[in-house]
Amino acid sequence: MNALIPLPVILPILGAALCVIAARSRMTQRVLSVSVLAANVVVSVILFVRVDDDGFGVTQAGGWRAPLGITLVVDRLAAVMLVVSSLMLLTVLVYAIGQRAEESRFAAFNPVYLVLAAGVSASFITGDLFNLFVAFEMMLVASYVLLTLGGRPGQVRSGMSYVVISLIASTFFITALALIYAATGTVNMAQLSERIPELPSGVQIGFSLLLILVFGIKAGVFPLFFWLPDSYPTAPGAITAVFAGLLTKVGVYAIIRSQTLLFPPDAQQGTLLLVIAGCTMVVGVLGALAQDDLRRMLSFHIVSHIGYMIFGLALFTIAGIAAAVFYVVHHIVVKTALFLVAGLVEHRAGSDRLSRVGGLVRSAPMIAVLFAFPALSIAGLPPFSGFVGKFGLVGAGIEADEWLIVAVSLLVSLLTMYVMGRIWSDVFWGEPEDPEVAKWIESPASRVPWLMTAATSALVVMSLLLMVFAGPLYNYAERTAADLLDPQSYVESVLGVGS
Amino acid sequence: MSVLLAFAAAFLFATGTWLLLQRRLSRILIGIGLIGHGSNILLLTSGGRGGDSPIIGSVPAVDFSDPLPQALALTSIVITFGVTAFLLALGYRSWRITHDDVVEDDVEDRFIARRSSTDQIVSDTEDAAREQAAEEDRL
């Protein structure tokens, strides 16, 4: 199994290189990138199954022993994130090919997209804090290019603030790394997990806060989220879906990993994270309520749901972290599906403004169905997967006697329901409020390519499968949480027993 | 030496932060460059005291300077360099579009802020459309 571990990074990078060589032929590029991402899905699933049996998969790049060389680790958390992310990347690529927009216009799309895939996988499997930085940069640089592909004025404007904010976060990361290395003399996460508890408690808390700041900017938590609803909606349709589904979740993954692995319980910032979680939920959903642009509304809504994941982590109990892990998986699938549907609406109605579009339930019943399932799921209605996640979170919150955050999360669920209801009544019910939209819907140019619908349907089916297999998946999440709260096993499998 | 480096890093961070708070992309870029240098100096100092070049067999291993922070700093320099080049290209594109490199406000944000209540959405957009139509008639 260990030979497979580097593949989710190596395959996309190789694919990207070949795509650059094949820049002349879009068809070759498509075949290459789809097959590379499909291979990634297969590798991830194999890793997922094997890791659940063995517990950990560790490989040392170049054969250098652990604290010296570059360590790649796949544990249960990394494995499940790999599976979900590779599935999302593949589906969205198929959607982008069907859309015949940016993908067919720019030769850079496919290679850069594959670099993004490699960066996302690398952030999940790295066992080294500095390599986490490198993986983040790989992912971010690819995202800069994808965000500004086309160079329209709106993209350039929001691209500038996105790049600057990300660069500031990266500089903080480098600064944090320098300070951590100066204090401990290592950047290997397993070794850090042994050495950080030996530091004075003030220094530990300082590092913990610094890393929360760095990853909080990427995850888009309150009060560091302002860049997110501004930049995501300007990206090309399919790209927004990947950003929305994956990039913020990589930040959440890094927060979960660093808080549980690196810091001993007395340096973990439970209370602070609970406050952040509550504010993130409320501010995000209120922001979403005020919007008129469908994709902006959904972008604000991502922020609100990041709060739920942080809430689960902040409890630092098995129940809480298990619910958070389940919620991350659920949210990646459902949110990506919602953004793909937003793309379908824009294609079908020629606009994604709530004040202009209307009546799609009659003119495009298929899109309405594809919207309804993920929307109900994200609002947390039983029996959908969102309900399972929220039920777990609320249960864990009650168990830990954190009544305030439980009340806030329930209130925010209601508001989420209202946001989804508003989208439904404005976009799908009534009549188109703008005559241009009505005219566009009648024209043949508004017909949605079948590949776009197929990719979206695949995601919606995946979100329904999450509901059907919620039981086994939840048990898996609980095993993951147990692993995360016992960093000793991670350390032993990386450094060897008794080191 | 280390005190000097610490002061240099502090100075770079301070001036870089001030420049970052400006509205023009060219100044923000210089600010990012300075902060980047500051953090690289911090990385270099994190390796402890300087020593001889770490080549096995040349000097006893206790006299080596720590090579890892230098490798890390090198990686981070390369990354900062690439991203800065990208930002410059973006700034140039912005200058070609608007003849300016001021980072503008979010238009949609101002649009939302102008709406005082949800009831006014429709009438506001209608008003705006009517005003625009009237203006086009005049031209």
What does this molecule look like?
The complex is a heterodimer of chains A (499) and B (139). Chain A is globular and about 70 Å long. Chain A has 499 residues and is mainly alpha-helical. Chain A has a domain at 287-485. Chain A has a two-stranded antiparallel sheet with strand order 1-2. Chain A has helices at 7-21, 26-54, 76-99, 102-105, 109-125, 129-147, 153-184, 189-195, 201-219, 227-231, 237-262, 270-290, 294-314, 318-349, 360-363, 365-379, 385-399, 403-428, 435-442, 450-468, 470-484, 487-495; strands spanning 57-61, 70-74. Chain A is 77% helix and 2% strand. The mean pLDDT of chain A is 88. The longest helix of chain A is centred in the middle third of the chain and has 32 residues, at 153-184. Chain B has 139 residues and is an all-alpha fold. Chain B has two domains: 2-104, Helix Hairpins (Orthogonal Bundle), CATH 1.10.287; 107-139, no CATH class. Chain B is built from five helices and no strands. Chain B has helices at residues 2-20, 25-45, 67-98, 107-114, 120-138. In chain B, helix 2 (25-45) runs antiparallel to helix 3. The longest helix of chain B has 32 residues, at 67-98. The model of chain B has no long low-confidence stretch (mean pLDDT 79). At the A-B interface, helix 6 and helix 7 of A face helix 2, helix 3, helix 4 and helix 5 of B.
